[in-house]
Amino acid sequence: MTHDHSSSSGGCWERGFDLSYRLACEQLARISDVRQQCRKSSAQCIGANEIIIDYLNRPYHIMIPECKILLEEGDMEAPLRDKILILHYFIGAKGTAATGKLIAYKQLPGGVSYFPAFSQRAIAPLVKNFGKSPELLMRAAAKLGGHEADHGDVSVTVSAFPHVPITLVLWRGDEEVAPNGNILFDANISDYLSTEDVTVLCETIIWKLVRSIPSA
User: Fold this and answer.
1) Most-buried pick from 16, 101, 128, 154 (CB within 10 A)?
2) What is the per-residue pLDDT across 157-184, written as a single tens digit (0 to 9) for each?
3) How far apart are CA 145 and CA 203, in angstroms?
């Protein structure tokens, strides 16, 4: 089973979340071997009609064929943006092993063109909210199962999906240099998500982290 990321998971975000979700549900229904796709995505297969997949340190149930996605705790329906990301990851997963090599967004397909938007949507809010207090990033990321990494002045790796580690990096700056940041990915990430999905995923992660900052 092959997937063209540019025509399947990528691109359809721009047509609106509802349509993106509907298209992803149609793709899910066309998967002929659900168990094989569970192996590729490291999802848990509960019979032919239910899948459990970890997303940001929480288990979600994908119900087939109704294409319902429920958070395991409390049977709550996942937010629409999260549902689309979960489906895109599951549908597009190629099962390739981690390379151990980290790359930046500009090294993704089309990443150079999309980088200004990615920087504004993900890197800028990362630096704005955590650049002067990077210890807050460590605390917030721990709630998503994040662990300390060895990059920049402070960095943390969050497992967005089983095969999609996202590494957030901060440099503190000083009186002369403003704080700075970056987001890094395993070099195999395009075997799991389109570049557009990566943008939406990183933006989603950053704002989940920002919302978890305790108020003064």
Assistant:
1) 154
2) 999 999 999 999 999 887 888 999 999 9
3) 17
